[in-house]
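[agent] plan:
  1. take the single chain provided in the ticket
  2. run structure prediction with default settings
  3. attach structure tokens to the ticket
  4. add a short note for the reviewer (M.T.)
[agent] executing step 1
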Amino acid sequence: MSEEQKSNDKNYVLTGSLIGAGIGFLSSSKGARTLLSKAAKTEAARALGFQMRRTLQDMLIEQASNNLRKQVDGYFQNMESGPAQKLMEAGKDKLLGSGSDSGDKESDSSDSDLNDRLDRLEKMVSDLADKK
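[agent] step 2 finished; step 3 output follows
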């Protein structure tokens, strides 16, 4: 074996030993409690906890806003092709006079009926005004 490989093997053995000792220490309940309580009191642990909470909140807010955005987009897409849009277009066509010929004939007859009624009302109002 070369010197470089021997030093790599020593590093692996040392790293494995440290990891094993850490796991063994944390597996005993008293040792883990004291270590975690000391670690929780440090400023680094507080900062880490704060950052983790903030990151989690940001992720939740982003997911909620994305879901809301998708639902709103889907709602408006349904509105564009749904029955409400068809009714609005039909009403717009009727108001603009771009309906069918039978619709025009019906509207002409209703317009003439309305004009006749207005003429009769004008005549009645003028007769009442003349009597006074």
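[agent] step 4 note for reviewer: DSSP finds five helices and no strands in the chain.
[agent] ticket updated
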